[in-house]
Write the structure tokens for this entry.
Amino acid sequence: MSNYSIKNLEEYYKVYRKSIREPEVFWEEIAEEHFSWHQKWDKVLEWDFDKPEIKWYQGAKLNITENCIDRHLRMSGDKTAIIFEPNDPAEKAQHISYNELRKRVNQFANVLKDKGIKKGDRVCIYLPMIPELAISLLACARIGAIHSVVFAGFSATALSTRINDSDCKIVLTSDGSYRGKKTIDLKGIVDEALKDCPGVNTVLVAKRIQSDIHMEPNRDHWLQPLLDKASTVCAPEIMDAEDPLFILYTSGSTGNPKGMVHTTAGYMVYTAYTFKNMFKYADGDVYWCTADIGWITGHSYIVYGPLANGATTLMFEGVPSYPDYGRFWEVVEKHKVNQFYTAPTAIRALAKENLSYVEKHDLSSLKVIGSVGEPINEEAWHWYNDNIGKGKSPIIDTWWQTETGGIMISPIPYVTPTIPTYATLPFIGIQPTLMDEAGKELKGNQVEGRLCIKFPWPSIARTIWGNHQRYKETYFSAYANMYFTGDGAMRDATGYYRITGRVDDVIIVSGHNLGTAPIEDAINEHPAVAESAIVGFPHDIKGNALYGYVVLKEAGETRLHDNLRKEINQKITERIGPIAKLNKIQFTSGLPKTRSGKIMRRILRKIAHKDTSNLGDTSTLLNPEVVEKIIKEAL
Ligand code: WTA
């Protein structure tokens, strides 16, 4: 018998040791006992981090939607699979049962088939947090199409780049979306994006805000009438274990976003197993993750992980501040939420508001509260623990990445003793290690270094869409035979991990990963700009905010600088989206560079942090004089 649900620390260590000593035996048992397969695997694992090539459950045949939907129908067809809580609290919440989910997924799948979509085709999904979003992922998976969800806050340019990179033929969107008091013209953004996407010949449009939008003849179709006509029966496409399930883009330090490719069987097994343990989900519980399905957290822990366990998963369309700062807690009370999973940036924003927003609501249903997306600072941890967990619901600080598919380092609630700001121990099967910059593994405890993983786990991304070389360079070339995370971490005297943040040029702003290079490219497009450099600086709600150093072609009049700042942020909004806007823009006459012409971000980072006491050796710079000037003029 496998240990599907870990009950205490002793069991955790026992199972952990087994998963490391005999990974194949361990993952075979988990897969065998908790999922349904059309055919079992020939080999549990084959891997080579050098190539890199990773294959789990090779030879197995399955469809993930049968595991997420069909197999629950006999026992719990009437059970609620998805609760939809709309943006406006006056609009009624929807409860979608597993039976209904099956019908709606099948209808959606049949509509896609009717539009010519088949196994292996890429489908771009640009939808707000409405039921159609979750259903569309499953509909793709039903027929073996590869979904590529683009967060519906990205701009038209960001959308078209992603559509073209993975050569999507079809886009699923809506007439618009609600976001607190505002509405957003999603369809307009899609129309704009598609001017640059010759490969897209079909757009399916869900109705949400009833706006009067342009529908391109022959290309655009309203979704609902097609769904209404479609059959509720759709035989699942039988997939190979390693067939791609989805592509999800994440920012890199340089270049275009990386389309991380996740495959079917390993992703299913790992997200389901982590969900079960991390949230201690019991039958009848209501689970709520506040992320957007446009990010990996939503893929793994709103859709696939919960549904693979037959859970009730809540999806929330709105924002934490609408109609007031008590909305999260109102929703917890209304739906008697048992597990609540959110991001530090939301916690910090809510902690700033009056405590009466929390105290008004009955949060006694909560059993587990989670955090994800960036390091949680001590103050936010205590606020969350005291006021939301009330000292009784453990906080799980879950460290993981788009690339890892599932939670990697985290306390297991009611099992692992927590310490504020520590992600604590690796999950079952995960072998983290710390490396120094010279490439030496840091053994023992009380060390700090770069976080790597030594051995594959089932849900590791298998490649970057269309660019396997970049996959190798980004993740497997920094250290031989290791997956490099891009994060720094320390290991304390007891072996607990604390994540210290990115060690590359990715900056996490409000939990969103932003690469510096694409933002700089956007700024440099402004005709007045010669060059620019972006760094992060601490921000009390966003965690990090962006500080831009901009060199103008002509210094120009200072009184025009505020206009320029607006225009630069406008460019960024157009190219990437409002999430990448700069909080501070300093105009400067030059950027500190090495003799080989590389911008010394280390120095710029220190200046933005207002920490100029020790800038290190600047004498090797090409232009050391510029540093003093930048410091003097810093914002
Ligand atoms: C950061 C989100 C500290 C980290 C699931 C990682 C965290 C990046 C934590 C991935 C955490 C995520 N503590 N840092 N609990 N969780 N991160 O791809 O830098 O959007 O590399 O995946 O977020 O972000 P991504």
